[in-house]
Protein 1
Amino acid sequence: MTNLHSRAMKRGLYRKAAPMMALMVRKNMEAEYTSVGLHCVQADHQSNQTELLARLAYLLGMGAEIARAIPVAGDNRPGLHQALATVVDMAVDGHRWDSSWGAQLSLAADISIDLFCSYGNLARRFEPGARLLSQHVMAGTVSADVIKQLEFPAVYLVA
């Protein structure tokens, strides 16, 4: 008797399904977080944005960790780290939104979605920490020192 799983693998059914699954994950992430990006640019300055900051902490937390772990296109590591630090600073400051960061945080969310979808294995590895950070932001228990200072490699240093 032939194992159905092996037969499916030999015919390449799973190889054909994997790109479709990746596309579905990307589309679901984009749909879920498009509202976050829009909310970033539409939120009123100094308004309480607890839920928005918690969602950004989750998404940017994963994006920043992926960018820290591997070289990513456009060298977005410093920008994602700064975006995450800014979200945490707003959360520590009573969840008050600073609208001057809206466009940058929206862009950082888009980059994080791309990283999440492109590096799913890494995203799954960092997801528990990002979820925990998000929960602390939501509960108001996050502290400013939770985001460590970014260390720049010698490539970034100007002589």
Note: The longest helix spans residues 13-42.
Protein 2
Amino acid sequence: MLLYLCALARNPDSAWLRHWSPRLGAASLSMFALHVPLYNLFMTVKQLVRGAPGQCLNQWSDCVATAAANV
């Protein structure tokens, strides 16, 4: 239904919007492809920070174990 409604949309009157719409559309695939790896990286760092960040400097294995326990 959303695709059908988008197909019925008329061309915008704004020159600014006509200029940026194709660029944003072309960039959307790249943003979609990158959001999963970036989200996974963010969640990993978040777990490490929430676990025991002080241990990460001295004992990496304890830091990872504490982060895994806080999931």
Note: The chain has four helices and no strands.
Protein 3
Amino acid sequence: MPEKDPRVELTPAAAGLLRRLHATHGPLMFHQSGGCCDGSAPMCFPAGEFRTGGSDILLAELVVEGVPEPVTFWMSRSQYEVWAHTRLIVDVVPGRGSGFSLEAPEGVRFLIRSRVVNT
């Protein structure tokens, strides 16, 4: 059963891109560190390629129609402390994102939009 108020959502454009990436790369995951190199952009990797640890929080297991397994969304604990009062919305915009994220060659990049939620 889906969460009533999920912490992370996908726009239809993001879900479509994840279906395409899954077809090429298999199971996927997101990580958002908030570090100097990737800013607040979520980075998409093949599942398990980015090693998470005790300083990371699993925020969501995103269900994407047409993708058999959930796409996990991880965030560094320090970044989460800043974003804890928001719902994160993963979207896609034209432009080049991080060279490490799977969508980089597609001419688009994942982007976080947010909406304040009652805590």
Note: The mean pLDDT is 88.
